Amino acid sequence: MTARSTLPLQAATLGVGIILALFLLGPILWMVSSSFQFDSDLFTVPPQLIPRQPTLDNYRYILTREAPASYSGQITGRRASGEALSLVPALKNSFIVATVVTLFNLLFSTLAAYTYARLRFRGRDLTYAFILTSRLIPAISVAIPISVLITRLKLLDTHWALITVYVAFTLPFTMWFLMKYFAFLPPEIEEAALIDGCTRFGALRRVVAPMAAPGLAAAAAFAFMGAYSEFLFALFLTRTMAAKTVPVILVATAINHDVSFALSFAALIVAMIPAMAFALIFRSYITRGFVSAFGR
Amino acid sequence: MRGKGLALFAVAALMASLLFVLPGASAGPTRLTVSFTVWTFAVDLIKENIRRFEQRYPNVEIKLNDHNWGQYNDTVVSRFVGGSDAPDVLYSSDHWLQQWAAAGWIVPLEDHFPQVKEMAKSFAPYAVDGMTYKGKIYGLPYYADPMGFFYNEAILKKAGFTLPPATWEELLAQSKVIKEKGLVKYPIGFGFSLQEPFSIEVFISMVYSRGGDLFDKDGNPVFDRPGSATIKSIQWVRDALKAGVLNPESLSWDVQAGAAMRAATQVYSISRASALWAFNDPRQSKEAGNFKIALMPGSTHQTVGFVRFYAMSSQVPKRGKEALDAAWAFLNYFGGPGPDNSYPVVRKWATDFGLGFAQMPLFRDTEILLSFGKWVDVPLLQRIGQRYSKVKQGLTPQFAQWDVFTRTELHKAYLEQQTPEQTVKNMAAKWNELRRK
Amino acid sequence: MARLHEHGTMTELALGRAAARPRRRAHVYPYLSILPALLVVGLISIYPLLFALDLSLYRNVLTEPLDHPFVGLRNFTEAFGSYYFLRSLQTTVKFTALIIFGTITFGVLVGLYLNRAGRLAGFLRVAILLPWAIPTVMAAIIWRWIFNGNYGILNALLVQVGIIPEYISWLANPYLAPLTLVVTHVWKWGPLAAIMCLATLQVIPRDLYEATHIDGGGGWTTFRFITLPFLRPTILLLLILETIAGFVTFDLIYVLTGGGPGDATTMLAWFAYAEIFRFLNLGKGAAMAFVIAALTLGMALIYVRLLRSEEYTT
User: Fold this and answer.
1) pLDDT value of residue C1
2) What residues does C281 pair with on adjacent strands?
3) Out of B31, B134, B413, C152, which could bridge C148 as a Cys pair, Cβ 3.0 to 4.6 Å?
4) Does B65 touch chain A if contact means CB atoms closer than 8 Å?
5) Domain that holds residue C18
């Protein structure tokens, strides 16, 4: 790359970078800006990139569930009292479900991935393929049977329904990922433990898992994000605020045009923050994880 | 050791999360619970009504559940099919009555509450038609209205017109003038979204207003005959889109047509008559006071009258006499005259949101007349409701499915992806296919 | 795969030396350890699929629960023969082609861009995680607002810059509505593709590049003979993922277009959903859902074969 320092090339590179940054971040920033405006400001042409009359009232309404002064005079879209204001309970549900899913996922996939990475046994390839292929089954194909199953188990509209389904759906990817990760780790240390009389499981628990902590962290991140973002099953399997998760609430407000746009945008931003924060915090594990999975 | 600590933490987290997940112990005196499902509209007022009901009947507890209006039928159907999650009492519409009743999900009220037959005599005829299946009445009205044609009088006058259009051709002509004068970019807009249950009612009003019919008395389609009012209506929408006077966004709108009216970026619309209340409410509308309702343009000026009502599911009779009594107390309070003959809930909807009603005694109620008079020409509204409103034809168990199919076909016609003749052919074919099953 | 064989033999050695341990435990442990995973996956993925097959073999209209005869494959033939199914298949194929092209192009180009050092590249490598972190439905809500026909910022920008004379109705236009889905999909999933490509690119040894330079090769030659072969497995994997994604797209349609206008964005998964929830034909809907699963599995198998043969040649 000898053309490192020609000015036009540098400028072009910078230009491309700026366009890319705009494409990636622009929509998010625009949504943030919109969330600080009232509907009357949002419905202006041309739109206000920087709000002329910024307000915190949208967030106040969403988080406290009490109409601030600016909203009390209005008939707040007659439907604002519906789902838009249920964000906080939805966040609680989402977090509970995502956390439990992550725990179970880590448990099951670590166990299985380690076995697939290190051991040979009859049915190894078949069961591995079985688990991975299940990932390819579209959600829509099994959504109805699963909701019938869940209803029969009397688990409709509970956290456990979502947890079970999400573990099943996030497991193949995390297992595949951890399998690659374990395969990458040098086997000498655990073999030392094995020779010392440790069982396989013991080796996993005491030696390999701590060594693979970054990989586990990445797998946990994937499982958490997967569970937090899922929509289709949440739509089918939840009925009331006892179990409705964030995606369901946000979609209900977004496609319901009678709900104030501004309120639904504020709700969206509040819901996005945990996901983005999570990704940023776990960033190094995630990228390292991808490198070990794809960089061979 | 790290491993042990990790394991301990995992177990602790699991137990902590279980605390959230396991149900808490229920406290309080045992009351009879009736679950009530609604679509999301003014849920605050519904809760207030429930509060007052529970004060009056302290041994009954109402559990409220709401779903998006656009997905209401989809969601409720999946709950009925699921079995264990069916609501006790719920909103319904004449679109869906036959489908639900044929499937046995809701029960005729008059079978369990014979007083309903007497009560029905005080309901508007199109409402009774809309709540009847196989000769039995399945509900008490929540909200009944004609579809109304609205216009912004101030902008009309600015364009030089004194009267609203009396025919569809006139509407097109007026709109072109308004557009040419630069007063408004798209004078006409409708809620034609695929998710909008009102969209079929708008379209059928267009057909009725030309004196057209959809089906004959044996339920055979007549809308696919050459030169039918249906074909003409489809053609009119295409012409309006081509002339640039109908907002193309209408195809993805539900309530935005109303928002455009209120923002004075639109002059004409068709919607439920009570939408006028919002248009003329100074708290919500920039142009409050400028909006008027008129007879539907077209030779006969007829329009659709619809009824949304309270229905009772087949779960309730299975729970015994106490449940039935509680349900009746609820139905009577919300959809009927109530314990004091004051129509407590119907009245609230009428005065607070301008929702129309099918309970005819209220047409002479001074409180309601005064409150309506603030936003609408009451005699005209009554005339439309009594003389020009027809129930939707084709209300059969397959109407709901045919409705959803038709919405897509109409879009394709409006978007010039197929001719009006082909569209009505497809609609008729689907109707016959559903009927055969 | 070669490495795994190494580990295998060494493990066997280790196990052999510790033969004093009861053999039974060593035999049972693998099965026990994979059992939870197998159970969960089987219960939630495989059993319901078989159930769906069972549902599809009967006439099952939800409003006529008593009329329930066995109809064999009639639901399938009715679905396949219907003009509407073929149309939704057509729309799905077109959409899938577009997202394959869009996502992979984005992934490769942005991966290449991010592979260089520099402040902006460093910042972008963080920024690229954000669209991926945002749930699909939230991305759809964001872009729905951007594409809004009356107040959306895209319209405002394009008019400002002079590309279009007046506001366009993106979501109500039958040709543009599918494109809005493509743009949103690429925005959401392109970054993942870019991360995958970046990870692959980062292990390409630097001396390979220098070697081509010395031999007088330019940018394109470098790309074709060094970079591309390394990227090929990743691109193939992306091909699989994007093809499947195209056929199962549901969240985006639900939020952005609701299948419309008309049937412009009624793709397979949405069609199956509508068949069940709008037309209440559980038999036909289940048949369609099963067909979608068969299609995606079939395509994945084909791709995996291709991927396998790739591995043997590199």
Assistant:
1) 40
2) C61
3) C152
4) yes
5) 1-56
**Cis bond leading into C261, ω under 30°?**
yes
Tell me if chain B has a CB within 8 Å of the CB of A82.
yes
Same domain, C45 and C111: no
What pLDDT band is residue C108 in, cutting at 50, 70 and 90? Answer: very high
Taking the CA of residue C65 and the nearest CA in chain B, the distance in Å comes to 7
Number of domains in chain C: 2
- A27-41, A77-91, C66-80, C100-114: lowest mean pLDDT where? A77-91
Across A187-197, average pLDDT: 79
Residue A71 has pLDDT above 80, yes or no: no
Quote ipTM for the complex. 0.91
Q: What's the confidence (pLDDT) of residue B18?
A: 53
Distance from A13 to chain B by nearest Cα, in Å? 39
B110 to chain A, minimum CA–CA distance in Å? Answer: 30
Closest chain A C-alpha to C182 CA, distance in angstroms:
14
CATH number at residue C262: 1.10.3720.10
Using the predicted structure, report yes or no on whether residue C132 has a pLDDT greater than 70: yes
Segment C112-116 shows an average pLDDT of 86
Contacts of C49 in chain A (CB under 8 A): 137, 141-142, 145
Instruction: Provide, rounded to the nearest whole percent, the portion of chain B with pLDDT above 70.
Output: 92
Q: Does C169 touch chain B (CB under 8 A)?
A: yes
C261 min Cα distance to partner chain A (Å): 15
How, if at all, do strands B139-152 and B303-312 pair?
antiparallel
Angle at C78 between CA C75 and CA C83, to 5 degrees: 145
CATH fold of the domain at A85-294: MetI-like fold (1.10.3720)
Average pLDDT over chain C reads 83
C42 reaches B (C-beta below 8 A): no
Please indicate, yes or no, if residue C116 is contained in any of the structural domains: yes
Q: Determine which of C58, C96, C125, C153 to mutate to test the interface with A (most A C-beta atoms within 10 Å).
A: C153
CATH numbers and ranges of domains, chain B:
32-144+306-384 (3.40.190.10), 146-305+391-436 (3.40.190.10)
Contact assignment for C261 to B77 by CB distance below 8 Å? no
Same domain as C184, residue C115:
yes
Answer whether C145 touches B (CB < 8 Å). Answer: no
C145 and A34 within 8 Å at the Cβ level: the answer is yes
Mutate to test the interface with C, among A18, A136, A152, A281 (most CBs of C within 10 A): A136
Give the highest mean pLDDT range of A47-56, A228-237, C90-99, C190-199.
Answer: C90-99
H helices of chain C, in order, are 2-17, 23-41, 47-56, 74-81, 83-114, 119-127, 129-133, 136-146, 153-161, 176-201, 206-214, 219-222, 228-248, 251-256, 268-277, 282-313
Interface contact B42-A96, CB threshold 8 A: no
The answer on pLDDT for C19 being more than 80 is: no
Q: Subunits touching B (CB < 8 Å, at least 3 pairs)? A: A, C
Is residue C64 a part of any domain in this protein? no
More confident residue, B2 or B30: B30
Cis amide prior to C65 (ω within 30 degrees): no
Tell me the pLDDT of chain B averaged across its residues: 90
Identify which of C90, C99, C256, C262 has the alpha carbon closest to the alpha carbon of residue C171: C256
A153 touching C, CB under 8 A?
no
H-type helices in B96-250, by residue range?
97-102, 109-112, 115-120, 125-130, 153-158, 168-180, 198-209, 229-242
| pTM attached to this predicted model | 0.88
B299 touches chain C (CB under 8 A): no
Contact of B10 with chain A, judged by CB distance below 8 Å, is answered with: yes
Sequence-distant (6+) residues with CB within 8 A of B25 are: none
Q: Is the dihedral of CA B93, B98, B101, B104 positive or negative?
A: negative
Average pLDDT over residues B406-424: 95
